[in-house]
Amino acid sequence: MPYLEVDRVTKRFGMFTALEAVSLSIERGEFVCFLGPSGCGKTTLLRAIAGLDPQTSGTIRQDGRDVSALPPSERDFGIVFQSYALFPNLSVADNVGYGLKSRRKPAAEIKARVSELLALVGLPTQGEKYPAQLSGGQQQRVALARALATSPGLLLLDEPLSALDARVRARLRGEIRGLQRRLGVTTIMVTHDQEEALTMADRIVVMNHGRIDQIGTPEEIYGKPASAFVADFVGSMNFLTGRVAGPGRITLGDGLAIDCSHTMTPGSEIRVCLRPEDVQVRGITENTANRFPVTIAELEFLGSFCRATLRASAPEVTLTADFSINLMRDLNVGVGKTLDIALPADRLRVFAGEAAG
What count of Cα atoms within 13 Å lies in the side-chain half-sphere of residue 162? Predict the structure, then answer.
C-alpha cells in the first residue's frame, strides 16, 4: 500500500481551477519533488495534502487513513516554509521544541530531543541564540529541525531553499537529502528549480496548469520527457520544427531528411527535441546516420564547456550544442568554422505539433 495516495483531487478558487483531478501515489520513505512554473498548482497540492487549504473534491489517504476532511492538527506531518516562519522572540532551542511543548511533553524529554535535532542539523551550540543572530542557511536548518521534532510520518518542504544564495542552496540540498535518507521520512518538496529536483528527488512530479504532465525518476524526466512542455522546462533543449516524411523518416526545416523512430502519420507537423549535449561531433564517418554539415554561428563560454549555435544549410535548422573544452581544443573549434555533426536517432524525441512551454 502506498504511504500517501492522492485520488482525483480538484481545487477551485471561484471560477478558477487550480488543480484538476490530480492523482498520484507516494511510497513510504520516498523523496518526491513537485516541479513546475509559478501558478502550475504545485503549492496548492502541497497545501491540500497538509489540510491548510482543503481540496474542493477528491480523496487524500495517508498511511491507509482517509485524511481528506481532517484539520492540519490531526494530520501527521511537519512542514518547512520558504520564509522559515521562526518565532523571532523565541530562542533556537524553544523554536525547535515548540511543537513538543504544545503537546505537553515532559521538559526533560523536550530538552533531549532538541539537543538531538540541533546536532542532527549541524547546530549543536546554537540553542541559546535567537533567529536574527543566525544566517539564512542556519535559520532554515532550525526550521527543518522544528518540523522533525515530533517525528512526523510526512515531511513537507515548500520551496525551502529559494531565499538562499546559490552556494548555501547547493550545500543545503545535499544536507537535506542526506538527512532524509538517514531518517527514512517520506518527503514532498515543492520547487520551481529543476536542478534541485534532479539532484534531490527519487521521483519528480512535473505539473502545468493544475495537472500532472509526467511522473518519473530524474533520469526518466530528463531523458524521456513525455511532452514538449516537460522537455522544455527540464534542462536545455533544442526544438526543431519538421514534418513526417514516412515510416521512420522525418524532414526538418525545409528539406533536411533524417531517420527517427516515431508513430506519426505521414505529413503531420511535428516538433523534434534533442539535448545540446547529445549532438554528436566526434567519430563521424560517411556511414554515420543523420549526418550533415553545420556552421558555427556563435560560441558562449560557460566555464567547463562552450555552448555553440549551429546553422545548417537547410533553412530554419538552427540548434545549440555543448562542446567540452577538450573538444574545442582538439577540433580547433571557432566561430565561422564548418564541421559535420550527427543527431543520434535514439536521442531524438518527437511530439505532434506541440508548442514548447
Answer: 16
Angle at CA of residue 278, ends 276 and 346, nearest 5°:
135
C-beta contacts of 160-169 below 8 A and 24+ residues apart: 160/80, 160/81, 160/82, 160/189, 161/191, 161/193, 161/196, 162/82, 162/191, 162/192, 162/193, 163/82, 163/83, 163/84, 163/136, 164/136, 164/137, 164/140, 165/136, 168/135, 168/136, 168/137, 169/196
Q: What would the grid cell of residue 6 be?
A: 492522492
Average pLDDT of the chain is: 93
Please state whether beta strands 186-191 and 154-158 pair in parallel, antiparallel, or not at all (unpaired).
parallel
Whole-prediction pTM value? 0.90
Query: Residues 218-239: what's their mean pLDDT?
Result: 94
The predicted-structure confidence for 246-305, as pLDDT tens digits, reads as follows: 888 999 987 889 998 888 888 899 999 999 999 999 999 999 999 999 999 999 999 989
